[in-house]
Each structure stands twice: as C-alpha cells, then as structure tokens.
Amino acid sequence: MDDDFYLRQTPYSDPGDLDTGGLPRDPRRLAAAVRGLVMHRGEGGLLGYAVPEERLSHDAESRYVTEMLRILRERGDAPLTERRPPEGRFVGTCRDFSLLLCALLRATGTPARLRCGFATYFAEDWYEDHWVTEYRAPDGGWRLADAQVHAGYDVPFDPMDVPRDAFLVAGDVWRGCREGRLDPETCGFSPVAGLRGLWFVRGNVLRDLAALNGVELLPWDGWEPGLGKGAPLTEDDLAAADAVAAARSGEDVRRLYGDPRLTVPAEITSYTAGLGDRKVRLPSSPPA
Coil, strand, or helix at residue 27? Predict the structure, then answer.
C-alpha cells in the first residue's frame, strides 16, 4: 500500500502536462537533472553568479512543481535533462530540490516522498533544518537522496544514499531531544539565525508528518501558535509530537494525521522573510 500511495502525485508534486517520455528512470540520473535545474539561493558565491534580488525573494515561494516548471520554461527551452547555467535555473531551497526530484521519481515509476528533518553535514556540531527525498530502491529498501548536494559540497557519503545519522528525520531528532541525547539548542535554521530549540524541532515533526501524508509544505509554513518562534510547548503539544516520533508504519502515519492536533488546516500562514506574512489557502489533500 505504501508504494501505491507514494507513486501518486500530490497537488504539490504534480508536474501537470510535463512530457516525461524523455526522462531517465534511474534515480541517480534524475537527481543529476534536478541539480542542473535548481540552485540553492545561498549558492550564488559558490557558482560565481549574482542572484537577482527578485529571484531570491520569489522563486522559493513557488509551492507547486507546476510553478517551478513554468519558471524554468521562462528561463530557457532546453530539455530538463540538460544542465543549465546559473542564470537559467530556479533559485530555491532544499525543499525545492527535494520536491522536484520527488515529482520526477513518481512520474517515472519510483515511489518517493519528502522528508523533513535535520542534516549534520552543513555545520559542525549543528543539526541544520533540511529536506531530502526518500525513494524506494531496487532492493526494496527506502533510501535518502539529497539532490542539493553536488561536487561543491564536501560530504563523505553518496548523496543518493545519505546515512541515517547524517540526515535525521525530524522524529528521530525529537526523540533524541526528549531523551536527553541531543541538545535542542543545537537544532534549527542556521547557527547564527536564532531559530533553534524544541519548538523548532516540533515544527519539523509536524511538517514531516504532513509530507508523509501528501501535504508538502514550504519550510516556513505555520498554522498554530505552537509553531511560532520560541513558543512554549504544552503537555499536549509534547504528547502529540511524542506519538508522531514513535510512529513506525504507514498505517500509524496516516492514523496520526487524522488527529486534529496534527492535521494541516485548509488555511495556513506563510511566514515569508522577503514578502511578509501571508494567509494561504491550500489545495485539497489526497486521500489517505
């Protein structure tokens, strides 16, 4: 059942009228294609490209793959498998690399899903807010793929098989914090940004649960007071996140998402640094 569920496109990953006939089916080649289409908005210096301010502010607000593809078409008509110069790429975040790879994997027959969590390979002694793609490998196991990572990143692993102690899904970090094995003050968005702590980890737990249920949010989406910066967590907040972190099966994941405390509502707030806080009405989610 999980494979059938994660082969289906969601309102977020659906590539619309994209002709997928020319795409490779191999996950590694698809990830390479995504790396040639998307650049992280913090990679301008690495690629020797001064990213226009408008692209920094607007590209990553593209909630849907159809919007990403529209922007890419406006910047060039080359096939998606052809590597683009920086000026022809979509300027996004880790979530955009992950969502586009997820969409292409599903479109070419590989079950895939987004995972929200924390990476240990961007800064020493720090768990960085991050998104990757999880896909079904030929041997039947699930693998973590980080399509953002390329030759310019010094990582000691294959980006198509990220070790589970290099990228930790949000529930694993939550359990580590609750059990005293991890310091929540070392978990967040950038060591210098001030966005860190147990409240932040809980937000990623909820976003990961949503993504596993086909609601692939932007990293800065929120919908209740407990997701606000530095928000104190109630016993109910803690217990609900504990339950999500303990989930082990697809049945558990879908059952928990039916809990009103854990379900993303139809209207959310997008806390956008460049464009200000905005109310957003989400599309209907696919049925669990």
Answer: helix
